Amino acid sequence: MLPQLLVSPTIKLTLNQTFTFLRPSPAPEHIPSADPMVTGMVTLTLPRRKYIKSLSVRLIRIYSLLFSNDEYEAGRTTEVEVSLASPKEERLFERGQHHFAFTIILPSSLAPTEGSQLGRIFYKIVATAKGDGIVGSDVTTYEKIIIIASPTADGETNDLNLWMEGFHAEIGPYAVSTVSQHLTVGGILNFNLILAHPPATILIHSVSAFICTAYGIKSIKTPTKRIDRVTQRLCMFVVNRTSPPDSHFASDASCITPGSGTPIATSPGSFHHAVVESPVRDLPPSIDAPSTNPPLVMIPEGHSYQLTHLGRVPSDGFIRSSTLLGTRTPLNVAHELVFEVTFETLSQDSPKGKSTLKLQKPITISSCCCILENLLVPIYSEVEVPVVKIDTAKTFEDRCVCATSKDQLVLQQRLAGMEFIRVAEGRPTKAEYRLQH
């Protein structure tokens, strides 16, 4: 009898999903929003009959904020609590296992999971049975959960189709387009620069794109305390004479048609072909662009110029996703896309020296986790797709956004389809065939 008395009750928490998406709504608070749910099961194992005071499941937010080098704030708050057994009266449970299914509704205004040098936010779902244990102590267990904020509806991703145009006294009319199918952390953007009709001969020294990030920290314990961080400037790409763009060409301003360009003079006495192809270069984020000498191109008067280049948003080691409207978080993140063209006009009427055309627009960068919903295809069968070895010597094959080669994706689908046909026709699968032989 004594060993049985010394056995402590145990509690187990099982979550049906450890990864969930929030879609905060910028609408007023009285308008209901689509709040996601997290479901799971609590298993309470009792070695003998026992009275339970209460059984609850809570969503706990744990945070830490850095205001300065010697000042920080840390704490934890209970965001949602669900009671599985009434705390007003004790209930007698028999010996054995007791299962409790639960559902937690997550407010869409919750702060998403965050991890940066300025602050961290993460969540735990904690199950607690009060009054259990050898001497009446609580029995507690927890599971971590990742919460991501998505700016788009279910099944969609955050795209970008940005167009900036205007007129500059030295370079004339210009237009810059930025397109991205998935504007996420680590995502790819396609940039296109058009100079329609420069009024004079100009030298293009460099073309660059940056992302400026502004952080705002607000205290949870002292709501009036707030600090706005200095904007961080991260480089996406810099193209110049030593690092040429993916393609660029010049043409007569009377006919701006891609592919019909004329040679571009890069320096006196030297020319290169109208369309120049070069591999995409992954540049690490930096603060300042490298110096460019000699210039990238020289555009004669009366000619147009078009440049196309592919850039990538820095990874999550350098940049965080944007804070969405309707999110209540102590750590706010805002982004601006900055596009710069450094040029020099070869004209007696224009001032000598380099000038910079700077364009900037606010953008919303979603988390790199938001792409998961589009990669989760329906499960057609329980056939396990075998792992296929890929020849790593091929370095120029097309790849998916998940970095998997398209050859591998097609081969995996074909193998899965062959297994599915075997099951439909009643033939043994490869795994069953190996077991039989």
TrEMBL record:
The record's annotation in InterPro entries points to: Arrestin-like_C, Ig_E-set
Name-wise, this protein is: Arrestin-like N-terminal domain-containing protein
Q: What is the lineage of its organism?
A: Eukaryota, Fungi, Dikarya, Basidiomycota, Agaricomycotina
